[in-house]
Amino acid sequence: MITLFTPSFADEANSNAQNLSVKETVARLDPMRIAVTMLHEGAVDPRIAVRPNTRLIRWQKHGNTARLLWRILRDVPDLYFFPREGPLDSAFLSLRRHLRLKTAVLSYVVSGGLDSNLYLPARERHIREADAVFANNTYLAQLLKEKMGIEAAGIVYDGVDRRYFYPPDSAREGRSPVIVLYAGSLRPMKRVPVVIRQAARWPNVHFRIAGVGEEEAMCKNLAGELGCSNVEFLGHLQAAKLGEEMRRADIFFFPSILEGHPQVLGQAAASGLPAVAMGIYHPDYVVDGTTGFLASTDDELSLRLDQLIAQRELRIAMGEAATGHMRKFDWDPISKIWQDAFEQVVARRRNHRASKLSM
Fold it and tell me: The pTM is what?
């Protein structure tokens, strides 16, 4: 059996994309082959709470780095999965090198921005020191090779939770008014004001914004200044409620310009929504011109949104294509890929250590 530690949270209410990916993977790993240790702050995802061979460590207000390092050194894991850029990860990498720990490190790279800037040193370190590196989409794996010289970066996509994200029972055709949905944080790189300005251009279309963030007050003020009575702010939505909103909507509009491979685009596609997004981060969840549109400029973004609002038949056709496209992004086969990767990287590190000891 492999022992795996991940600095990820198992909380049911935690919808952070990185933690969500780990939760969905851990919930499906064979507990007789992989024992997992992860963190939590509150109520744990029930699938993980009842999973055999699973240790949950409560995150506290202070002293987590020292306490967790002590736990790791007391029972050294075979694998450290998905390091982040915090003090725990940095300290562990140093101890692994100086104490020559048996632990293999598998880095999963999901953050955007590498096309224009190098990663911060802490992130670059865990990528370069890892025994294996995986990216969550094709473009990011390509950038790791071009920008960092990571030749063998694998690709493992994030899946979609079919419990919450699936098409509506009845067809969307003929519904009025058209509903445009945005879901994500309200931070500068997400460009939610673009959503509001589009709403000002289409007063007879409903625009619904799901999410919270530091720009929430500014966005609400902008909607008021522009007289956008057709904009509704929904706040933070748990997965079940977000799935309901996606089945209620007609178009998913996502003007963000800094992403890795946003899960929300996959969730929208699985819900039968055509998407309009920026193409700068090359999301594999959207097939340009087939399941939605990927724009290269703001003018094109606006044009494509106009096209979908005006053409009901196009919305329906793209939504159906999106549902079909997302069948290859199911969590069950993706988790099997992860399980095989975990076992392979641990086996390689064991063999490497054994060969060094025999020299």
Answer: 0.87
